[in-house]
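Can't paste images in this forum, so I'm doing it all in text. The chain is below; anyone willing to post the predicted structure tokens underneath?
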Amino acid sequence: MTDTQDTGLIQGQAKPEEETFANATTATEATPEVVTEKTPAAEAEATETAPAEEIERPTENLAKLSREEILERLKQLAEHAGEVTKAEIDNLKQAFYKLHNARVEAAKQAFIENGGEADHFKPTSDALEEEFKTVMAAIKEKRNAIAEALEKEKEMNYQVKLSIIEELKDLLETPEESNKNYTEFKRLQQQWNEVKLIPQVHANELWKNYMLYVEKFYDLLKLNNEFREYDFKKNLEIKTHLCEAAERLLEESDAVSAFHQLQKLHQEFREAGPVAKELREEIWLRFKNASTAINRRYQQHFEELKEMEQHNLDQKTVICEIIEAIEFDQLKTFADWDNKTEEITALQNKWRTIGYAPQKMNSRIFERFRAACDEFFRRKSEFYKSVKESMSANLEKKRQLCEKAEALKDSTDWKATTDILVKLQKEWKATGPVARKYSESIWKRFIAACDYFFEQKAKATSSQRTEEQANLEKKREIIAQVEALMEETDTVEAVKRVRVLMKEWNSIGHVPIRDKDRIYKQYRTAVDNLFDQLNLSASQKKLSNYRSSISSMNEGGNGLHRERERLVRILENMMSELKTYENNLGFLSASSKKGNSLVSEINRKVEKLKADIALMKEKIKVIDENS
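Text version of the structure:
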């Protein structure tokens, strides 16, 4: 609906054909038609402009107002609905629903983050919105009534102007009384100017008819030069003043406001009477040049606005692309989703700081942005739901591990139970996380059972550690004795003594596990160095080394028995292999060169096998001695 004042302004200035003369002198003179450049202001021809709601842009900044303040402002405007522009009402409506939609969106996001499905969200009723709709409906009703009354007024004015034209026709019927009729002519002319609004569809034709009879009347007039000059002078003063007013509008900072003020000046210029013929073109060009400059600024204003809106669209498109490019398969933890949620929130805040996009794209880009955000929070909701299910399963697994650990905490089978508890601890680590409210309590329950067992084990095995430490000292003493034999000159006595020490080494029990490898390495080094000095054979060295390893074989209880069975199997295989080589020697002919080479190789292998068989028998004998 067009505002009453706005409509009066635009329709009142209508077309050049509605021009009237306050003072007319000739039948051929008429005010020049008002011309403006083809700018955004020139949606209609010449000085005709589009209705105010189609060209006016909201300039008031409502970003800082709350919904309540916007509603209060709207209530104030409702009292003067006929004096308010549609653009101002639309601006308030848009600002209200921007805040309202933001509240609904925030409620939806909170619903989703709490585990709700986006499709199941339903906004709560809003009393403020209902009151807003009621006020808007009241304003609309008032403006509709005003518009209807305005149309009736225009039709009545149209009929009045038709009657004025008919009266002008009557004046032309008595040309001999033209001077006498001049007073009546001026009255009709004044009445014409006072009647403003008429239906636009009749404006041009009505104006042409009026001007036709005005010019005819002037043709009949026999006015003296003084009267004519007086009219011209008064009209020149009026139009000069209008030119100055138009030129001052060039300094107006608001290009839109300057444009609308210019339309009023055009109306006044049109209504002013003619000036002297020699000044007519000059005064019109002055006014037209000022109008052209104002129209150019108006056009530039909307070009800049269009460029800014396109820039806003580009920024919003980039935000949409960033959200749409999220790789959801890379978001695998709560931290990942929390970090990404912070990014989305930052982008949403950035979106709110960006102005409007072009009107045809504004809703479309917002729908794209909202769809991208909805998809993110839907995926986040699904992740949290699946993680909750996984955490519930993990909690059940950890409760079972707690029960197993608690069932073993009083066991005195230290080694077997230790192995089991270590295995349970590995399973615990491999089990995924549980809800934060359970994680600490379930962990304390599990570790309490484990700690209790290991504390009891530590108390029970403290005497064992003392014994292991004593065994370590004994083995260090044996190593010292072996190293002392390096000074022995009697080889036979040294060999005899070292075998006694080796047997004593094997009879000593366990040492602390952290010292086991290191002390054994010292022992082997001392024995090997002694044997090297005594020039013992390789077989004797192997046998001596084997004697020293006997003690470690029997740690499990049946170690020596399993070792003897292994050696017996190896011995049987060696003897079978030796028999095969000996049988093969009988088939080989020693007459050929090739035969001699092969026989030599087999004989070498036979000798090595016999030495290995002898060593294997000695090893079996050592086991029998230690059984």
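Residues 4-305 form one domain. Residues 1-59, 589-595 have pLDDT under 50 and may be disordered.
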